[in-house]
Amino acid sequence: MSFVPKETIEVIAQSIGITNLSPDVALALAPDLEYRIREIMQESVKCMRHSMRTFLTTEDVDTALALRNLEPIYGSTSNDPPQFKRAAGHKDLFYIDDKDVDIKDIIEAPLPKAPLDTSITSHWLAIEGVQPAIPENAPVEAPSEIRKSEYKEDGLPVDVKLPVKHLITRELQLYYEKITDLTLNKPGSIPFRRALVSLATDSGLHPLVPYFTFFVADEVAQNLNNLAVLFALMRLVRSLLQNSQIHIELYLHQLMPPIITCIVAKRIGNRLSDDHWELRNFSANLVASICQRFGHIYHNLQPRVTKTFLHSFLDPTKALPQHYGAIKGIEALGSRLIRLLILPNLEPYLHLLEPEMQPEKQKNEMKRHEAWQVYGALLGAAGQCVHEKVKMFSNLFSPPTRVTSRGSGKAVIAMSAAAAAASNEETCNGWPWGCGSNELHVS
């Protein structure tokens, strides 16, 4: 007994123009139609399984028909289900409501967009073991207990952006906590010095570099009144810069502001005895080493730093400690910048500085001390330029040595006083002859 009724065979026959099909023939064709349908469906299921899918599509049926050398079914690829209507005058007869389509509308319809060409793009999957937060990399799922609510108080949905999870081992977490604790609470202890050595030599600290840079930037802003903590933070930065195994240049945009703050800040420390001058000198040398090391990577690094120092130096509204830091910063960057930035402004600046150095005009002893510190910084910067010039032309003004002989069979090399003074440092470091005379006795 076939599940296809003979009425279906009669309807199919009428659709192709056969109106005189006998009931016996329709009843005989029903089992064969069922067999053909089952055969096509079995082939369609095979195509579905070969495509690694669990649902059947019209493309699978078309592929099965093609395997049997049959034409595909046209007009059955729509996602909308077919609409059946009851035939007029027949209680149990239904037909599919096919809408008439005007050929003119099809011709005038716009063409579909051309598909994009096949292309290949590249992106960073990971940099030094750290996955960058870019659109090509899917963000790591945040733990469910710390997820934010997906709805506001009024019930409206909100767009929740999941944070990128940075995985750090438990050992590195303990290491970071220990270093930060020593920096803030025991900056002058022996364990802190050992920690600085570890920061400068350990090769596995790259995952902690962004945390250390954020820690330095945050603590400098909060501890401007604590000179010991600021000095410890700058020493921590120096140790990170000395470590050749980590790529600190990726985080210079976070490190430079706190370092420059320690140079040109208006006030550092809360006690009169705090030696903030030494901190400014240390930080200035730190900035100079950064510019020298990474200037070829970031070409605007030194110009931006120089512009900051020059602005602090030429601004009359800035305090004298800020002028001192700016002078020391320019001095650390080299003699060329001293000649270009400080020496042209030296004479007018000294006219403004001189009244602050005299007890008759400046009664505040602290301000006089600050003025003398700035004066000493200017002398040091100018002296550095003079020293560079002297080294450049020292050989032009030194007379040659003269070799004379004595009756005792010894050769005496006579030197000028200037040449002897220039070589005094070398001749006193382990040479077999003395350095108290300007004559070198050679046997």
TrEMBL record:
Q: Which CDD domains match?
A: HFD_TAF6, TAF6C
Task: Name the domain of life.
Answer: Eukaryota
Keywords assigned by UniProt, alphabetized: Activator, Initiation factor, Nucleus, Protein biosynthesis, Transcription, Transcription regulation
Q: Which Gene3D superfamilies match?
A: Histone, subunit A, TAF6, C-terminal HEAT repeat domain
Q: Which InterPro entries match?
A: ARM-type_fold (IPR016024), Histone-fold (IPR009072), TAF6 (IPR037796), TAF6_C (IPR011442), TAF6_C_sf (IPR046344), TAF_TATA-bd_Histone-like_dom (IPR004823)
Q: Which family does it belong to?
A: Belongs to the TAF6 family.
Q: What is this protein called?
A: Transcription initiation factor TFIID subunit 6 isoform B
